[in-house]
Amino acid sequence: MNSLSIPEIDLYHLARTTWKRRIILFLVMGCLMLPVILILHLVPKQYTVSMSVAPITGGETQVGNGGLSALARLGGVNLSDISGGAGQFHLFVNALTSRTAADRLAHNQPLMQKLFPAQWSEKEKRWEEPSSILRLISHSLKGVLGIPVEPWHPPSGEQVHELLTNNLQVDDDPKSPIVVVSIQSATPEVAQELLWNLAKAVDAILHQRAVDRADDYLGYLTGQ
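User: That's the sequence. What structure does it adopt?
Assistant: Structure tokens below.
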């Protein structure tokens, strides 16, 4: 029976051959590394900006004047469940990526100009359609394929909602009362401003809903 022989590798010969062709080796390595270096320099750095939120505990929140609140408690309505508590906090977390919050942020024009700088002309002080070769090619291909091209319009709640849905990360650990909301951006100052205004917008939306619901309850009880 013939045994299978494994050829031995002459490391010395391999090293001498590699050294003789070192110029070719260095050129190949340089060609491979050059695109990586260019990408690292051209692609903007991404920063992670985080915001920690937690429910308010230790006190009872009341909506409306004292007399009507007392009347509501006598009628079996707990206004603290309407305006605060763990349930309200979960509503707050879920509303961070809602279209309602995005529409509210879209009314903040200074913030919108920072979120979509490519579409804002500081010189003309107006929104303008960005011109790019990729956009032109995309529209041309859609025209050839019969795909309808959506006309450009200034950024609105739709674009803000898409930005929040694609980029906002909510770390909601059931074992922890603290929820960490984070977003990645090349401009951390703008990301910080976005998170701050988003929290204020959602808080205002939920507060108004709680007030409206409390007014409905109190109006019903007052009528009784």
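The two ends are 105 Å apart (CA to CA).
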